[in-house]
């Protein structure tokens, strides 16, 4: 069975533990999140899980189309491996924090794999222009989430000291998002240094894929 197909039918992470903040032995260390904070965090997990599932399958599609090329095989595989890790992390966080997953998961799977495959069939330059557009949107999206988590989640009471801070659970999510944001930045750099701008017509491909990605993010946050 091909690796890409295995990713297509795989269902989530087996163990949530390794991606979660460790559970304190003597009960909770921080007060509960407010309903608004809990709702925002659920939305973060839902959209990021759907987004990383999409990214995993986009690179699976690209690898299917371009993995035979010696100049691209390692490069696409490197980005794909990082997306597999991002995807597994948000699968685990979604399970561990009992957030509701996106109801449109089958659509994200088919759409993402199709986009990666189609871009790859159109050639290296188109594929890289798609990556450039997607990673630009996702980098900004993660930066927005980091800003909100930093500003709106610093008032959770530490039950041991009475101080208001970020809880371990929130810090753990912030750390994952920071790492992934940096890796998406690396993918963007790879795309722009591997001829994304040589795709024709670059402006049309870039802006269309950007619009599709933004619409998918907007929808996955809500549905
Ligand atoms: Fe990612
Ligand atoms: Fe990425």
UniProtKB/TrEMBL annotation:
State how the cofactor is bound.
Answer: Binds 2 iron ions per subunit.
Q: Which cofactor does it need?
A: Fe cation
- The UniProt record lists the EC number as 1.14.99.60
Q: Where in the cell is it found?
A: Mitochondrion inner membrane
Entry's CDD domains?
Answer: DMQH (cd01042)
Topology of the protein relative to the lipid bilayer:
Peripheral membrane protein
Gene Ontology annotations for the cellular component aspect, listed alphabetically: extrinsic component of mitochondrial inner membrane
- Which keywords describe this protein according to UniProt? Iron, Membrane, Metal-binding, Mitochondrion, Mitochondrion inner membrane, Monooxygenase, Oxidoreductase, Ubiquinone biosynthesis
- Catalyzed reactions per annotation: a 5-methoxy-2-methyl-3-(all-trans-polyprenyl)benzene-1,4-diol + AH2 + O2 = a 3-demethylubiquinol + A + H2O
Q: A single GO BP annotation from the record?
A: ubiquinone biosynthetic process
Which residues does Fe cation 1 bind?
A: 52, 83, 86, 184
Give the residues the record marks as binding Fe cation 2.
Answer: 83, 135, 184, 187
Q: What is its pathway?
A: Cofactor biosynthesis; ubiquinone biosynthesis
Per the record, the domain of life is Eukaryota
A GO term, aspect molecular function: oxidoreductase activity, acting on paired donors, with incorporation or reduction of molecular oxygen, NAD(P)H as one donor, and incorporation of one atom of oxygen
> How would you summarize the oligomeric state and partners of this protein?
Component of a multi-subunit COQ enzyme complex, composed of at least COQ3, COQ4, COQ5, COQ6, COQ7 and COQ9.
* Protein family: Belongs to the COQ7 family.
Biological role stated in the UniProt entry? Catalyzes the hydroxylation of 2-polyprenyl-3-methyl-6-methoxy-1,4-benzoquinol (DMQH2) during ubiquinone biosynthesis. Has also a structural role in the COQ enzyme complex, stabilizing other COQ polypeptides.
Q: What is the name of this protein?
A: 5-demethoxyubiquinone hydroxylase, mitochondrial
Q: What is the lineage of its organism?
A: Eukaryota, Fungi, Dikarya, Ascomycota, Saccharomycotina
Q: What gene name is listed for this protein?
A: CAT5
């Amino acid at each position: 069975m091909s690796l890409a197909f295995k990713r297509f039918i795989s269902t989530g992470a087996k163990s949530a533990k390794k991606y979660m903040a460790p559970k304190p032995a003597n009960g909770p260390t921080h007060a509960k999140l407010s309903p608004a904070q809990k709702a925002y965090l659920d939305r973060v997990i839902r959209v990021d899980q759907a987004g990383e599932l999409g990214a995993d399958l986009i690179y699976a599609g690209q690898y299917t189309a371009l993995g035979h090329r010696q100049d691209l095989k390692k490069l696409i595989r490197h980005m794909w491996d990082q997306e597999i890790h991002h995807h597994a992390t948000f699968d685990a966080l979604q399970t561990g924090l009992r957030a509701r997953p996106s109801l449109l998961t089958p659509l994200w799977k088919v759409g993402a794999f199709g986009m990666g495959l189609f871009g790859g069939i159109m050639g290296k330059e188109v594929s890289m222009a798609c990556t450039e557009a997607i990673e630009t949107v996702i980098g900004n999206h993660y930066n927005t989430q980091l800003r909100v988590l930093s500003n709106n989640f610093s008032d959770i009471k530490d039950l041991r000291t009475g101080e208001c801070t970020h809880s371990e659970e929130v810090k753990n999510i912030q750390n994952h998002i920071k790492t992934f944001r940096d890796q998406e930045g690396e993918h963007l750099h790879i795309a722009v240094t591997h001829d994304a701008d040589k795709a024709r017509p670059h402006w049309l491909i870039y802006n269309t894929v950007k619009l599709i990605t933004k619409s998918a993010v907007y929808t996955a946050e809500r549905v």
